[in-house]
């Protein structure tokens, strides 16, 4: 869906490059939704086939643990299956939360899990929340031409570098996504016309406001799928406030022979590639092929908002917290992507910064980048951070011209200097 939004922007840019596009341009939700659903089904089928090829038995049942070696499975029809094993691995992931304290939230709202399966366009949409899921959903909805509003209780992209988060939301705001800051929803009512009336409260003034939407999308966090597993009876330790499983460095739980990885692990990144890698390493350890543990440091990720944001390592705030303001050096640059030049797009929020230790070799602690193809840019530099890259290594690297990534290799203005960080010329 992010790609659908990017293509919409590309069509607009194309006119500046001489493409003659006649007539109004519109997006057909049903065509896109069908294509995405078919792709997801093909992925699921492919996984089933691969499991079968590798002689892995797949059971479509709901499981719960009876003891550290026994799992009970129930089919939809109620048929019971008992499985025993030396080790049990839990990787049930999580699902989006509904705010059960808000009247009408579940009855009239949808989540990010549902949006892919809507048969018709969600129309004018209110996205509640400001996580990466919320902003990604809002970004692609606006990108395909829908009236989109984001309601934010406190800050956007909690846990990410907040300067970068501000650039992401500023860009979205510039290109038409509306933001309602410091507000919380109070109730959702379906009117006789079929539209949804949302009532919310401004947390700063206490004033109440209302507006109508065709859809309300809740993106207010995810809950781990641990409640129905019977873990409490076995003594598997859970973090009370999150419901996640407390795990060790080797993904072990508090009960021998029971392991857990992925989103359900307390303190683990909620990222699919991280879970996949952790699962592979755990499988190798359990089968005696390796002793290697998952390295959760310097895990790269990208927020696929209209202006993509990629990062690896720690935020500027976290680096300052660890080493103090005088213990870090931050090199930064505002740059203009080549893609934005002829198209005359605003590049005010295209920015990068490299957070380093101030002393010694100036080891790189974090790298942050907003701009086109941020995921591709960040993935490459993530290898450098895993290898202990320093600021000197960065300057010794030859950039590829003309790319956005080369701007990282040229960054030379520190925040401490107070100099203008805008890139000029080549």
From TrEMBL:
E.C. designation(s): 1.8.1.9
Signal peptide coordinates: none
Record Gene3D superfamilies: 3.30.390.30, FAD/NAD(P)-binding domain (3.50.50.60)
Alphabetical keyword list: Disulfide bond, FAD, Flavoprotein, NADP, Oxidoreductase, Redox-active center, Selenocysteine
Top-level taxon: Eukaryota
GO BP: cell redox homeostasis; cellular response to oxidative stress; glutathione metabolic process
Tagged with keyword Phosphoprotein: no
Cofactor entry: FAD
Listed GO MF terms: flavin adenine dinucleotide binding; glutathione-disulfide reductase (NADPH) activity; thioredoxin-disulfide reductase (NADPH) activity
Membrane-spanning intervals of the chain: none
GO cellular component, one term: cytosol
Pyridine nucleotide-disulphide oxidoreductase dimerisation domain ranges (all copies): 299-410
The protein's enzyme class: oxidoreductase
Pfam families: Pyr_redox_2, Pyr_redox_dim
Residue stretches making up the FAD/NAD(P)-binding domain: 29-279
PANTHER family given in the database record: GLUTATHIONE REDUCTASE, THIOREDOXIN-DISULFIDE REDUCTASE
Family (UniProt): Belongs to the class-I pyridine nucleotide-disulfide oxidoreductase family.
Protein name as annotated: thioredoxin-disulfide reductase (NADPH)
Source organism: Cottoperca gobio (Frogmouth)
Classification lineage: Eukaryota, Metazoa, Chordata, Craniata, Vertebrata
Gene: txnrd2.2
């Amino acid at each position: 869906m992010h790609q659908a939004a990017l293509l919409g922007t590309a069509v607009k840019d194309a006119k500046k490059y001489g493409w003659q596009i006649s007539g109004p341009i519109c997006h057909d939700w049903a065509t896109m939704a069908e294509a995405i659903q078919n792709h997801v089904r093909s992925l699921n089928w492919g996984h089933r086939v691969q499991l079968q090829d590798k002689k892995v038995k797949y059971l479509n049942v709901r499981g719960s643990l009876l003891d550290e070696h026994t799992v009970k499975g129930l089919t939809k029809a109620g048929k019971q299956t008992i499985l025993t094993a030396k080790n049990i691995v839990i990787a049930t992931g999580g699902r989006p939360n509904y705010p059960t304290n808000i009247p009408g939230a579940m009855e009239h709202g949808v989540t990010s899990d549902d949006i892919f399966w809507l048969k018709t366009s969600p129309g004018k949409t209110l996205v509640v929340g400001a996580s990466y899921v919320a902003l990604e959903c809002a970004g692609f909805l606006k990108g395909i031409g829908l009236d989109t509003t984001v309601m934010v209780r406190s800050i956007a992209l909690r846990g990410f570098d907040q300067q970068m988060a501000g650039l992401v939301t500023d860009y979205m705001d510039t290109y038409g996504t509306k933001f309602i800051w410091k507000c919380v929803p109070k109730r959702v009512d379906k009117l006789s016309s079929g539209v949804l009336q949302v009532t919310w409260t401004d947390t700063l003034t206490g004033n109440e406001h209302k507006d109508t939407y065709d859809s309300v999308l809740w993106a207010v966090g995810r809950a781990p799928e641990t409640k129905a597993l019977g873990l409490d009876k076995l003594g598997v330790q859970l973090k009370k406030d999150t419901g996640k499983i407390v795990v060790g460095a080797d993904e072990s739980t508090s009960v021998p022979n029971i392991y857990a990885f992925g989103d359900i692990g307390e303190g683990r990144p909620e990222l699919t590639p991280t879970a996949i890698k952790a699962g592979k390493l755990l499988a190798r350890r359990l089968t005696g092929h390796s002793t290697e543990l998952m390295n959760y440091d310097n895990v790269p990720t990208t927020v696929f908002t209209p202006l993509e944001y990629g990062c690896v390592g720690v935020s500027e705030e976290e680096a300052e917290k660890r080493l103090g303001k005088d213990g870090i050096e931050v090199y930064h640059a505002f740059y203009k992507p080549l893609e934005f030049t002829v198209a005359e797009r605003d590049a005010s929020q295209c920015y990068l910064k490299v957070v380093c230790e101030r002393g010694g070799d100036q080891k790189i602690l974090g790298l942050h980048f907003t701009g086109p193809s941020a995921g591709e840019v960040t993935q490459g530099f993530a290898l450098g951070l895993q290898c202990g890259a320093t600021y000197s290594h960065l300057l010794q690297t030859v950039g590829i011209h003309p790319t956005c990534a080369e701007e990282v290799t040229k960054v030379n203005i520190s925040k401490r200097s107070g100099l203008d960080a805008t890139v000029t010329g080549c």
